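In this section we walk through a basic example: taking a raw amino acid sequence and producing a predicted 3D structure, encoded as discrete structure tokens. The instruction is simple. Fold the sequence below.
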Amino acid sequence: MAYKIIGLREDNPQGWMAAVGLLYILNKMDIDALMMWCDGFPTLPDLTDKQVIDALWEYLQKGSDLPENLPQPKPGNNKISLDLTAGRVNFLGVIKQMIQAVTLDDIKKALNRRWVNQDDVTSLGWDTGAVKMAANIGGMKAPDSSPHRGVIAGQWLAAESLPFTGTGTRSSEYKWVTWSVPLDLEGVRSLVLSLSTEWGGVVYSSSVGRNGKMGYLEPARTMSKQK
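The resulting token sequence is shown next.
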């Protein structure tokens, strides 16, 4: 028995972040979960999709503590490394709205279906499949004032990973790593910090692009993998 989560892809930074956020929540819900990446998707040995989805929904119903646990910016910076917002888009405000808006069906779709980016959610710039360039915006509206489309539960789960993934200084790129053996949350925490390929993983990198003042992560590049 193993649950392969086909909605979350390792080469999409938001999909990878969502997998880490999912594991983080399962740990908070006292579920002994292990995770590995198989064929590009996060896989949870000895758990079913129902067990995982029920735990995520119960966590949301109890109330996420993410707003109180967001990492603090480094001295000299006013934003964490993954806060790419600008203009009218308020980073914490979007996170709070998502926590209130995500439904059980949203969770099921984000985990068990390929993403089609049809949800009305303000993009935080992490999903490489939901980038809005000015030339594609109806009426040529600014990116921070036009309708957004994304995967709300995918972006929410990615936000839940920020205590692990959102540290460091702001830079022109973001890097992440996968692993091919089952690891618990502490093992994943170590890999996130070290970017080590020791456990059969791949290091990816996305450059930070700009659409006006709004930032977004560009399509991933493979940096290195275990030989």
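Looking at the output, two observations stand out. The CA atoms of residues 37 and 180 lie 5 Å apart. Strands lie at 2-4, 36-38, 41-45, 173-177, 202-211, 214-217, 221-225. In the next section we compare this with other chains.
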